[in-house]
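User: quick one, fold this
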Amino acid sequence: MHAESPSARSGTSKFRPGEAVPTGIALLRDPHLNKGTAFSDAERDALGLRGLLPPHVFSESEQEERVLAQVRRGATDLDKYMALSALQERNETLFFRILYRHLDEMMPIVYTPTVGEACQKFGHIYQRPRGLFVSIDDRGRIESVLRNWPVRDVKVIVVTDGARILGLGDLGANGMGIPVGKLALYTACAGIEPRTCLPITLDVGTNNESLLADPMYIGLRRHRADGAEYDEFIEEFVEAVQAVFPSVLLQFEDFANNHAFELLQRYQDRLCCFNDDIQGTASVALAGILASLRITGMRLADHRFLFLGAGEAGIGIADLIVSELVDGGMAADEARKLCWFCDSQGLVVKSRSHLAAHKLPYAHEHAWTDNLLDAVRALRPTALIGVSGQAQSFTGPIVTAMAELNERPMVFALSNPTSKAECTARQAYTWTAGRAIFASGSPFPAVEIEGRTLVPGQGNNSYIFPGVGLGVIASGATRVTEEMFRAAARTLAKETSKAELESGCLYPSLARIRDVSARIACAVAEVAHARDLATVARPHELLPAVKARQYHPEYHRYA
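Assistant:
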């Protein structure tokens, strides 16, 4: 038996026309094709499934209802994560149907904050392999390892070396949960076909002694490679990716600061790649800032930003703010003077020695102080942005000082997971009498204060990277540029409704994420076409063409 062509309406394509469909047990064990109890009587006869399934044919809605009940019965969020992971391994379409239709409820399970706990315990909950593990012991044969992947038309790779998983640090090979989760959001949020998504973990060892001592740890039992050994391994990996998947979008994820900036600089002009921790975080933060201007009536140039944390996320956000200001006519040096940083040693100023290279552009002339509260009082910032991974570092006195300086202080506590947030939404609103413009990296519930219900916005990168990926695929872009992330931020900021802004939320409802991602994809594609980076002809009407590419989790009819 051979498959029919998938419908143009659904955009689904679990196999290619003319490709043989497995039958019997082999079909039930293929998560891309399996429908479980939803196989019709005719399909059961045609595909050798009679007797391999219970007799009753269930509808998709009935299957969804059963699985939702199973997931919700989980005693902990990790139990729910494992139930959803098991579903993804046996019935991918049903998994994405549930994720897509219940994104508000399920995204915190499949990604932050629960994925952080899943990574910490990955070796203890490991069931089946997913994605590719490429270890430093594979040097000299990485291309052949990549060719073991059964799909050739891979569109997106998310790769990590597990060095800096969320705010949890070095989790080594256990970090595979991050690429898997990110790619689930590429599909759920933007409609990128799941079979074209490939998660990869680069195992170069770990310096986490508790993992090295854990008998259930799944990775190499050695300390991390670095220096020339590391660089040569990454170079071979990138060359292998270009050879095996020449048109793929490569997303670097959760690399340590000492490698993240260097890798982005080294490869961004050689292949279609980006670093989500630097550029995706920057774009979603800039979108929140631009949306806040609609609340305050301020201009971007009226702000002074103080960052707690001077790593990938903080520098990435500042760089994109500067780029946006320069695009508006400000000199780059003047724009950088609006961005200030505090790191673990205090205020980043010119008089400090031994500053990392990525901090130097933001080391301004000023007296040094060793604490954030004094920096707030001295610099009088309008916006406080936390990207430190240090829980509760935005204390009551610090946020109160922001409220004394500003009618509507901006407080972004962006560190993930929730346990690492610089403050909670309730704290920010309470300490400012409800005047704070708040956003966080992980979700917080609505807060009742002074007769108002305030809805904190989650500045989650899932608002950005899936749409950027869709735009790259739709245009056949050969590079990902800073201009694309600015275009994505501007588009996202416009999508937040007036009612959402009035409730205190800087980002649109996740219920609209597919449409929002499609519009971001259009903005990214327009940049690709304008800058001669596109390899696909621009359609007359871009938005309908982009939406037509989106995967929908619908079962294929076999008979």
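User: anything notable?
Assistant: The first strand starts at residue 132 and ends at 135.
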